[in-house]
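User: I'm putting together a teaching handout on how multi-component assemblies are represented. Below are the sequence lines for each component of a complex, exactly as they appear in our records. Could you produce the 3D structure of the whole assembly as structure tokens, so the students can see both representations side by side? Please keep the chain order the same as the input.
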Amino acid sequence: MNKHRFAFRTFVLVGLFFAFSAAADAQVIRTWVASTGLDTNSCSRTAPCKSFAAAIAATSVGGEINCLDPNSEYGVIQIDKSITIDCEDTQGTTRAAAANGININITDPADTAKSVRIRGFTINGLGNGTNGIRVQSANRLTLEEVVIDGFTAHGISVETTSGAFSLVAKKTTVRNNAGNGINTSLSGAATATIFLIDSLIAANSVGFNQNSATVGVVQNSTFTGNTTGVQANGSTSVLALKGCLISQNGTGVSTVTSATIRIGGNIITANTTGLTGSDIYTWGGNLIDGNASNGTNSGRAAVQ
Amino acid sequence: MNKYRFAIQAFVLVNLFFVFSAIADAQSARTWVSGVGDDLNPCSRSAPCKTFAVTITRTSVGGEINCIDPGGFGAVTITKSVTIDCEDTQGTISATVSTGIIVNITDPADTAKTVRLRGLSINGFGTGTIGVKVIAGNKLVLEQVVIDGFTSHGVSIQTSSGAFSFVAKDTTIRNNTGNGINTFLTGAATTTVSVEDSLLIFNGIGLNQGSATTGTIKNSGITNNTTGIQASSSTSILGVKDCVIAHNGTGILAGSSAVIRIGSNIITANTTGLSGSNIYTWDGNFVEGNTTNGSNNGGAAVQ
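Assistant: Of course. Below is the structure of the complete assembly, with chains in the same order as your input.
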């Protein structure tokens, strides 16, 4: 009997040794979080973690985190390496009271991709979070089916200071932020491209506020209930809008300080002011009527 | 003690017999995988398997595999008509050094040679080769599929005979060092490509059509690629409507007498908008704001 007990204890000890070795050493390409997970787990499919902080630490550069089930307690997320967070169909959420929901700051030279992909995710600031997603340093950010709501600053704040950054967002909703829905504020030699498609930007200060060194393209998206729908500011801010609904804003489309906005095939109605600014060019087909002041475009853009 | 040992051995043998019987005999029209499944199971709803590779062996020709819950179900080679539908439960495949899904259906008895993939995410993690590779088959349909991070192509159609058809909707193909969708046919093979409501972003070429390919792409975003859309052969014909082609090196490129027809697209913020001598317009393309806009080569008929 004692012999058996000793053998059993040895087996358990060896097992525990391997388990902890795995947790401490091994970063894996795919990790899991679950509402019933534990951060002392290895973040595997059968032993998921609880928080994104633990899952990110257990995930290798360029790896992917998935959610096993819905949960509102996954915690704020600091991303310092290329990673995918894909909670499509299980709906991951993070609540970010008095903080940034997701902060992206990838500076490791060995991580050449500097690419973040977020899909199927809700980021709720509860009315007092700071920014929904703040990008300090990265090359690429892709958002699909992401909801960002209730921040005191911006829904998405792009604040890179060097390099070329690109944001692509599809089927993404950014709403109820006291600051702007999407805001670019670059410094140094940083540049950015923005592409939005099939998205909803509602009830923010400026829906999409594009400052210097940023080139944006938006298709088939809605800007409604914002103080200003879409604004480009600065001579190096160039924006194109096609097939969008821009309504119930104070100002619909605004250019400031020599920024260029090109518009085609949009409906711009029921705003206090439709178009304002001196560099709004039209590809034609914009339905602009029913604003308190419709405003006018400044000339044509080429159609082929 | 010996009596017990015999009883255990007998029990194990009987169990093994039933397990192998199940494997050998039963192919079901519908099979199941689960993140906590076991490949020794029969892949039923109540006893699901763990990997697509094993589950497909227990699925009859033309059958369907579903995912009970989220999980990484492994790379798979498909050699018969099958549906893999993980919509709303999100199946994933990790393919770090290989191809995520290979379609290679050659059995003459399987006349449909049709594969349908829905609600799947296939990740190459920057080191996998190809997301979905088609060697032989008749039809492939992708719906709500994500393909990311391969060193070669996201989808590679490389059939060598017969007429193949590829349809993709609500599909995202991104961050592939090669091309997002690539056709490279040999022999007498032909293919059609139809893409709708999809994203082709951060690839070498978003959509690259080789010879013997007729393609149509609608309402999709083709951005941040080295080249957005390219057709490069006199037997490569492509129609592009309602797409966003932006932030690419070159937006649309027609090489080697390939014909590309465009209508109602926005082509902006590329280094070069249009390039090549056989780009015809149905009109309504917003081509402005590229470093070089380029120009079309004439009209296409609108009735």
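A couple of points students might notice: DSSP finds two helices and 28 strands in chain B. The CA atoms of residues 234 and 244 of chain B lie 25 Å apart.
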